[in-house]
Amino acid sequence: MQSLATQAAAFAARFGLPNIMSFDGGRCLHPALPTTEAATAFLTANAERDPPLDVYFCPADLRDGFVGKPTKGDCLGATWAWVDLDPPKGMLDPQALAAWQEATLAEVDATDLPAAQLVISSGRGLWLFWRLPRRLPADEVEAINYALASRFGGGDACHNIDRVARLPFTVNSKTDQLATILRDEVGCTQVEALPRLAPPDAASEAVELGDLGTPSPLADEDAFRAAFEALPCDQAKRLDLLLSALNPAAANDFRDKPLNVRDRSAVMYSWAIKATMAGMEPSVIRDCLLSPAVPAISAHLLDPKKYRPAARVRAATRQVARAHAWALANGWQPPGAVEAQEQAEVQATGLISLAPVPTDLPARPWLVENLLMDGQVTMVSGRGGDGKSLLALQLAVMVAARVEFGWWHPRERRNVLVLNAEDNIDEQRRRLLGACDVMGVDPRLLEGRLFTMDRETLVLVHRDPADGAVKTSKLYDRLAELIEQHSIGLVVIDPLVEAHINLDENSNADMKELVLMLRRLARQRAIPLLIVHHSRKGATSGDQDGARGGSALVNACRVVVTVERMSADEHGGIRPPEPKERYIRVTGAKANYAGRIGDRRLELVPVELPNGDETPGFRRVVFGEVGEGFDVRTWEHREELLRLVRDGRGDGKLWSSKPTGPRAARLDAEISQRFCLDAKQAKDVLARFRDAGLIALGEQKGDDRKMSEVWVLPGTELPEGTAEIPF
Predict the structure, then answer these.
(1) DSSP 8-state assignment for residue 611
(2) Which of 94, 264, 392, 526 could serve as a FRET partner for 484 with CA atoms 20 to 30 Å apart?
(3) The model's pTM
(4) Are residues 11 and 2 in contact, defined by beta-carbon separation less than 8 angstroms?
(5) What does the pLDDT read at residue 203?
(6) Distance in angstroms (rounded) separating the CA atoms of residues 434 and 420
């Protein structure tokens, strides 16, 4: 008669050597060679140990030469499917175990699945194996194994392709019982006859619901209805959840996706997700899934051909855990989670010393200095038709091609996504050609660099009518995925009003939520977000509060730039060569982390496209340039500047010489706007006029009766309360 070691080695060889192992103090031991003789010697030596080690085999097909316990990378696939069934905890009595094995095997054979060809008693539990007609890839085997484990209440992770099982004809050290073969039949099972269920990912498997307590299936429909009254949701959601359980055909959708009501497993799972997101306790959901009073959602679990009775509680709990994991992954938060998180954050809050300042303090992450910063929101604001969208597009081209535009220089080249809700794809491409022509950019350089979306709506944030909360949309989640997939380094939203729905634009609370949710996109990927927004009626250039809607919108942006057409007065004072409609003023209205840019000008240039269409593009234009050849004696605006100093700003008040303060009182701000100078140029002009003795500094009492510096003409009669400063 063959020894136990010989029989064990012969059994293992059926699955393909090398595949047996034992574990000693964390070390994985293998036979010296992948042969039956080496396996027999290994098992014989182990049997002579005192006590012998537990010996296992891997039912998957393994590559040669693996080290240690096999990993998924060592598995080529498998020609078997399997499930591991464990008895109740604490059951060690041999007679009780034998009775449990007999009853469990009878329940499994009573299901509508093909009978397993191979059944092994591990000395405690059961391993069932179905022989397959061919080797299947690892993911297909795991899907079958996971479905079998769900049906029969298999052990945790027993579906994994690298799982090891007790080797027959060896001793189980926990029970001192010999592992034996209870059934060994010929034939195989067609793959199509076995169920499949994709195992959850690692995040889903990590969801731990804790002890749900003793099951108490709801006795009747009245008890089922009563369970809904305590739900922390509105009545409409309660009724939808109730109807989904009592009559799925009347509520056969989930998240706008049709549900096959004939698929009892899908009905059960989708209802568990709805119940979870409605705030129902996990234990109550489990008891509903086990209640014969609600067959629409419980019939799948209670069918003896699908699940043996002892496996139903575990299967129901697993369904609840899967539903819980799905809900968490799709933005749901359990009742009280927000408050608990806030409390934890408050408790973790401490004090940080600002000093000493580290020597390697990082620089601000500007993509475009004073305009676009990683993790922050920049706004371009202006009236309709003033060129906001065109400016945003050309800024996008500037970053995607890394070229200079106007006064801006991107620090690096990045992929850019422009979400334009007002123009179709063809019109966006026409505008792109015009922008590239004016900027001197070959459009071919932008292939795979500049992107958009072909959608009629671009709603990213909305108010949920069910609970009134401001939430992100499915498109928001998809956008986050696309930003990562395409390595987007700048996102443009044009216009902002198309990115939200059911929010009150004049509500500071709503606008703050909107910008914070959009900023989250920027911070998750450490990229800037540029939003295009309309200004309110009567807004003036450089006024950060000129943007339409609640002030919280502007407050949440770190940089605000305004765009405004040239006025008739400006055009008459500057006298540029083209009509006033051709020029816009770009002004820095807000800059939290840098000095605001002064007034700058762009000229709208018409571009004729190859198809005969005409489209505009912006180019930089400078009036009143102050260079090395500047001469106060011949400057074209000399007399007008002297007249401004002489007349003051009205009501006997002279122009302030301070570079800060209200713009309406400062001479540098006035000549900057009037003569199209930036802040540095305006300061330089005034300094040169002063050095030439054409203007001087004086003092004048203000409305607060305090003396302040003002600009005056030397040797002129000064208003009362004014004195020329003698230096």
Answers:
(1) T
(2) 392
(3) 0.51
(4) no
(5) 38
(6) 17
Q: Are 126 and 132 in contact (CB under 8 A)?
A: no
DSSP string for residues in 152-195: HTPPTTTTSTT--EEPTTSEETTTTEEPEEEEE------GGGS-
CA 610/CA 546 separation, integer angstroms: 39
Distance set, CA 350 to CA 172, 337, 345, 355, 356 (Å): 54, 22, 10, 15, 17
Contact 267, 232 (CB under 8 A): no
Relative orientation angle of helices 667-674 and 679-691, to the nearest 10 degrees: 110
Gyration radius of the chain over CA positions:
38
CB atoms within 10 A of CB 587: 23
Beta carbons of 114 and 194 less than 8 angstroms apart: yes
Q: What is the pLDDT of residue 698?
A: 87
Count of Cβ atoms closer than 10 Å to residue 149 Cβ = 25
Estimate to the nearest angstrom the gap between the alpha carbon of 634 and the chain centroid: 60
Give tens-digit pLDDT for 649-694. 877 789 998 888 888 888 988 887 777 676 778 888 999 899 888 9
SS3 722: strand
Strand ranges of the sheet holding 614-621, from the earlier edge strand across to the other edge: 450-451, 415-420, 488-494, 529-534, 377-382, 559-565, 583-591, 600-608, 614-621
Bond preceding residue 334 cis, omega within 30 of 0: no
Q: Are strands 707-712 and 696-701 parallel, antiparallel or unpaired?
A: antiparallel
Asked whether residue 554 carries a pLDDT value surpassing 60, the answer given is yes
How many CB atoms lie under 10 A from the CB of residue 181?
Answer: 14
Q: Is the pLDDT of residue 645 over 80?
A: yes
Two tokens at 599?
Answer: 């007034």
CA distance 101 to 108: 11
CB neighbours of residue 350 within 10 Å: 5
pLDDT in tens, 417-470: 999 988 999 999 999 999 999 999 999 999 999 999 988 889 999 998 877 889
Could you give the percent of the chain with pLDDT greater than 70? Answer: 91
DSSP type of residue 570: H
Strand partners for 254:
257
Rounded CA separation 184/14 (Å): 12
pLDDT in tens, 48-73: 988 899 999 999 998 876 667 888 88
CA distance 599 to 586: 6
Q: Write the pLDDT tens digit of every residue in 116-130.
A: 999 999 999 999 999
Q: How far is residue 699's CA from residue 519's CA, in Å, rounded to a whole number?
A: 47
* Least confident among 89-98, 333-342, 432-441, 494-503: 333-342
Residue 513 CA from chain centroid, whole number: 16
Q: What is the pLDDT of residue 531?
A: 96
Q: Which two tokens stand for residue 507?
A: 């509500």
